[in-house]
Amino acid sequence: MTLTRADCAALDEADPLAAFRDEFVLPEGVIYLVGNSLGAMPRGAAARVARTVEDEWGRELVGGWNTAGWYAQPLTTGDRLAPLIGAGPGQVVVGNSTSIAVFQAVAAALRLRPGRRVIVSDVANFPTDRYVVEGLATLLGGYEIRPFEAPLTDEVAAVLLSEVDYRTGARHDVGQVTARVQAAGALMIWDLCHSVGALPVDVSQADFALGCTYKYLNGGPGAPAFLYVNPRHQAAAENVLTGWYAHAEPFAFEPGFRPADGIRRFAVSTPHVLSFAGLEAALDIWDRVDMQAVRAKSIALTSLFIDLLAPIETLRLATPRDPARRGSQVSFHHADGYPVMRALIDRGVHGDFRAPDILRFGFAPLYLRHVDVFDAAATLTDVLSKDLWRAEKYTHRLPVT
Amino acid sequence: MTLTRADCAALDEADPLAAFRDEFVLPEGVIYLVGNSLGAMPRGAAARVARTVEDEWGRELVGGWNTAGWYAQPLTTGDRLAPLIGAGPGQVVVGNSTSIAVFQAVAAALRLRPGRRVIVSDVANFPTDRYVVEGLATLLGGYEIRPFEAPLTDEVAAVLLSEVDYRTGARHDVGQVTARVQAAGALMIWDLCHSVGALPVDVSQADFALGCTYKYLNGGPGAPAFLYVNPRHQAAAENVLTGWYAHAEPFAFEPGFRPADGIRRFAVSTPHVLSFAGLEAALDIWDRVDMQAVRAKSIALTSLFIDLLAPIETLRLATPRDPARRGSQVSFHHADGYPVMRALIDRGVHGDFRAPDILRFGFAPLYLRHVDVFDAAATLTDVLSKDLWRAEKYTHRLPVT
């Protein structure tokens, strides 16, 4: 039995997360289903960033490294983020980008498994993960990259996987995969870009994990990435990007490199302080969020969207029907996905298109309502059933950017 | 003949750069001689960053990648910065950090000189440069690091040097050193952290160059770094940090890595957009600056400071007396440099201390006046001649941060 709009409104009334919607800025007339690409702006971000610019940089100048806490930021922000991925204090460092964190994690894993010369990196991984692994393998020489389907032989040093597939939204069983990989003597590295903030994450058994903070976490465009290193590896694991921030005493300006103890060993360089400020504004919200409630609402919203669109025959669901097997995302194959998405955006429903034929919708439980999902499905139904996407203004290709 | 304060005021009256001072926010009662560590805030930064947060992120959301130009930012900001280092369009990419840029440049140079197994990295280099080279050599294996004094044999693949020494302010002759290194068949990589924005820089003969933008360029704490790749290397040079931004078609999400043509090959990852906004505000000023005028004023200010302090016997000049051989910085050795600097800062003159005994002062010609230099020298003279630094509150060590 499919829900009516009134049913949806009633669910929104009863939603324990409903109050969070007011903490985000959402443009009038837009249903934003791209929070899995760039999350909406926390209402507090403008003031938080302005404080960093005007009060900290402007007034404290170089003193801000101490007085405003910039120096410690990679670790203090890491500690704030840690609970969102099932990690504890001193296990997460924030900074740089996902690509850099992938490079650090995979390089560290290879050095911990020197006899093994295979890296497993799924084709379902986000491209940057695959590209970075490819670049690292070329740099080091003598390494082979195999897909996830390959047997876990004793040649495998490390497995790098996305918990949630960026195209289909399919979710791995983190506990099961981690156990299987580790049983084969390899190290498990999780990419959490499409799961952190979307569902409760538990990296406590993983060897390394990493992700960005600008999707479901709402940290802002290009907000810094994070890297988790399991405490059992922190003494032995090497950060190959040995910038000054990773040094035991950065301000001693010693001639040679001496790694810091603990997670700071994986810091690289001066934090991008203004970009950190956006993330801090987001964490001001996340500090108060119950991730179990987020997951329950995410499942409700994605299930609703799937159910409402089930009658449309030209949409082929790319996302697992079993809620346990998906993230907070619903994707459909549609042969004309590109013009369909443009027609949809033109009507205020923002999703995105991923070549060759994927319509992708992200569901951010903190600011999306059941009625938004109902309206989005109704608009997509309209666009498809009335062939609205066939208009020339949608079918001509825009320049790629 | 030493100048009087009235002479200094007259020089400020005639200063062609005088109007720029109003474009920066300078705290009341502070003479800021740490612009070589973190430059003062451009007055336009608050509005520029607020625009990026509120108008771009807040209203455009993911659309900002196109409408606000975020996607192209690493190259468009690179092109804006290029003239400041003597480079042309399509030669500079902005993003990440100095440490990452060092890693990219040195790794690329080593791959262009595969038979050579020596990296020259001076001990006078900024520590992060030396640490990163050390980490890279360890990662690759089979490389040896030698100091600048070592002969340039045919084993040397690359030489990494800072144009201006971060401690002493001594400046290399870029043209002469570059020619000598290249004549030996090695590649020349310049670190411009302490020269860009301080003096006219010319990298046109260099193979690679890099630097940060938060010192003399005033881009803000943790503002993105830049990397220059000489056009003659752009087709062959490899970026070993093959993040998605370096791909020929980032949004095609192809399975394998295919490097972009031109300088974009050296982009790595999603730009830190909020941190870029601070740098853009600074470039709004730099676009209008005559670097020859900056150099002339820099020499005048540093010479004045040296002259005014010449009578103080306990200060031993660490910076070359010949203006051509120094950057925009003056350093002195003083056995009790730590308490001396604290006593000075307590009196509103902000410089910094570098272990073991360096008092370091940076001179940012856009916002410092001759009278500021006069007053700073008078305060330092006072602190030393009256033994003000011997007070217990200065001599006890603060915790290192």
Evaluate the radius of gyration of chain A. Answer: 22 Å
Largest interface: A-B, 89 and 90 residues
CATH C-level category of the largest domain in chain A: Alpha Beta
Major β-sheet annotation of chain A: 7 strands, mixed
SSE arrangement of chain A, N to C: HEEEHHHEHEHEEHEEEHHEEHEEEHH
The percent of residues in helical segments of chain A reads 25-40%
CATH topology of the largest domain in chain A: Aspartate Aminotransferase, domain 2
Through-space gap between termini of chain A: 42 Å
Q: Which parts of chain A are unreliable, with pLDDT below 50 for 5 consecutive residues or more?
A: none
How many H/I helical runs of chain A? 12
What structural category arises from helix and sheet content of chain A?
alpha/beta
Number of strands of chain A: 15
Please report which band the strand proportion of chain A falls in: under 5%, 5-15%, 15-25%, 25-35%, 35-45% or over 45%.
5-15%
How many domains make up the coordinates of chain A? Answer: 2
- How would you describe the shape of chain A? globular
Major sheet: arrangement of strands of chain A: 4-10-9-8-7-5-6
CATH hierarchy: architecture of the largest domain in chain A: 3-Layer(aba) Sandwich
* Oligomeric state of shown chains: homodimer
CATH superfamily membership of the largest domain in chain A = Type I PLP-dependent aspartate aminotransferase-like (Major domain)
